[in-house]
């Protein structure tokens, strides 16, 4: 088991998680973060650190869905270990549903 | 992993054939808060093997101390149990963890509930003077299967009371409750049963009942954590984090996988 970043992170990227991760397993894209499942030690410290509850165990119904995305993007995106400002308008995007379809899907497909 | 540094093993103590603790040198630049964990490990012929371990030592201590089980064929613990003074220990640069009073809303009594090696972070917290400034009473529960697994019992029952820095606080404010589940002992059973039937609270001074201003930190086996979270749900207590301080925080006692 590992933890995964779910759709909730898209357009928010609060990055509180990257500071608490003891193994630096977060990878950063323009719109969201993902967790490298090869590096994650399943310590669970990041889960409550996320202000928008975007991080779930990969056994959680919300987590299972995003597992493959985390695996795939963690191979491409760069490590992030230092917290930065959330994306502009993060608060207004926090509760929005269907963010993957709206904001990320097109960017990931060639 | 970034920033692996080297420390030197100073001492090793074997509590039982399944449980040991050890101390190591601390680089002054290695910072942590009492209750946090870090990655420690050993070099092998292949890649270093690193696992998460809570610091037993308080944040101000000059040396680092860790408590570990010995897992038969465990990739790290089967090697770690053989370390001797002078050996090299690897230490990750970053400490982390949820067992921080800043993740809890202000309260009056703090219950630190542990099973097995889950005691480790609480050994750190109960030696930090800050916790006694924040709470009127600190209750440390250590639940083990056997009496000999009650690590640090002598330290907790006597030596700490004469510590020149925190002895007075410990004597006045700390209650240590060892509980054993599988053999005769003055306190028998499981801590989660003690919570449900209220006997945990009746052992602590005048306010015997669970109080709205009670706060909990928990570290232990997955089974205990699951039972504990069920109790918190029933009581309507919320898990705390740095963003949303609550009434309890949990951390698993890491095991060698």
List keywords for this structure.
heterodimer, A: 110 residues, alpha+beta, Alpha-Beta Plaits, two-stranded antiparallel sheet, globular, B: alpha/beta, 2 domains, 6-stranded antiparallel β-sheet, 5-stranded parallel β-sheet, 8 helices, 20% helix, 32% strand
Describe it.
Chain A has 110 residues and is of the alpha+beta class. Chain A has a single domain (3-108), classed as Alpha-Beta Plaits (2-Layer Sandwich). Chain A is 34% helix and 13% strand. Chain A has five helices and five strands, in the order βαββαβαβαα. Chain A has helices spanning 16-20, 46-49, 61-74, 90-93, 99-108; strands spanning 3-5, 26-28, 33-35, 55-57, 78-79. In chain A, the strands form two sheets. Chain A has a three-stranded antiparallel beta sheet with strand order 3-2-5, with helices on one face. The longest helix of chain A is centred in the middle third of the chain and has 14 residues, at 61-74. The mean pLDDT of chain A is 93. With 257 residues, chain B is an alpha/beta fold. Chain B has two domains: 5-96, Beta Barrel (Elongation Factor Tu (Ef-tu), domain 3); 101-252, Rossmann fold (3-Layer(aba) Sandwich), CATH 3.40.50. In chain B, 20% of the residues lie in helices and 32% in strands. Chain B has eight helices and eleven strands. In chain B, the strands form two sheets. A six-stranded antiparallel beta sheet of chain B has the order 4-3-6-1-2-5. The radius of gyration of chain B is 18 Å and the shape is globular. Classes of the chains: A alpha+beta (110), B alpha/beta (257). Chain A binds chain B through residues 16, 20-24, 39, 41, 43-45, 48-51, 81, and chain B through 1-2, 37-39, 50-52, 92, 94-98, 103, 239-244, 249, 251-252, 254.
């Amino acid at each position: 088991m590992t933890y995964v970043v779910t759709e909730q992170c898209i357009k928010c990227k609060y990055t509180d998680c990257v500071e608490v991760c003891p193994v630096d397993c977060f990878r950063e894209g323009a719109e969201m973060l993902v967790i490298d499942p090869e590096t994650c030690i399943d310590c669970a410290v990041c889960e409550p650190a996320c202000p928008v509850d975007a991080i779930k165990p990969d056994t959680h119904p919300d987590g299972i869905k995003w597992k493959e995305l985390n695996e795939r993007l963690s191979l491409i995106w760069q490590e992030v270990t230092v917290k930065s400002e959330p994306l502009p308008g993060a608060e207004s995007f926090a509760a929005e549903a269907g963010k993957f379809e709206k904001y990320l899907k097109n960017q990931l497909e060639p | 992993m970034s920033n692996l540094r080297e420390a030197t093993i100073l001492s090793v103590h074997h509590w039982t054939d399944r449980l040991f603790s050890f101390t190591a040198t601390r680089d002054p630049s290695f910072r942590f808060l009492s209750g946090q964990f870090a990655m420690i490990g050993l070099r092998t012929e292949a890649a270093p093997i690193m696992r998460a371990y809570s610091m037993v030592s308080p944040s101000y201590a000059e040396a680092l101390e860790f408590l570990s089980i010995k897992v038969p064929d465990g990739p790290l613990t089967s090697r770690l149990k053989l370390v001797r003074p002078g050996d090299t220990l690897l230490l990750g640069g970053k400490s982390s963890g949820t067992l921080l009073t800043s993740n809890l809303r202000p309260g009056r009594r703090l219950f630190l509930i542990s099973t097995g090696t889950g005691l480790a972070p609480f050994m750190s917290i109960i030696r930090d003077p800050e916790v006694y400034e924040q709470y009127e009473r600190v209750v440390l529960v250590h639940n083990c299967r056997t009496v000999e697994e009650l690590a640090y019992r002598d330290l907790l029952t006597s030596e700490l009371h004469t510590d020149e820095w925190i002895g007075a606080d410990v004597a006045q404010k700390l209650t240590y409750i060892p509980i054993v589940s599988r053999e005769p002992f003055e306190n028998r059973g499981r801590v989660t049963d003690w919570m449900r039937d209220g006997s945990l609270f009746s052992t602590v001074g005048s306010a015997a009942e669970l109080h709205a201003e009670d706060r909990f930190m928990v570290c232990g086996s997955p089974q205990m954590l699951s039972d504990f979270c069920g109790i918190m749900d029933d009581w309507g207590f919320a898990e705390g984090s740095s963003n949303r301080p609550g009434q309890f925080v949990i951390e698993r006692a890491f095991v060698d996988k």
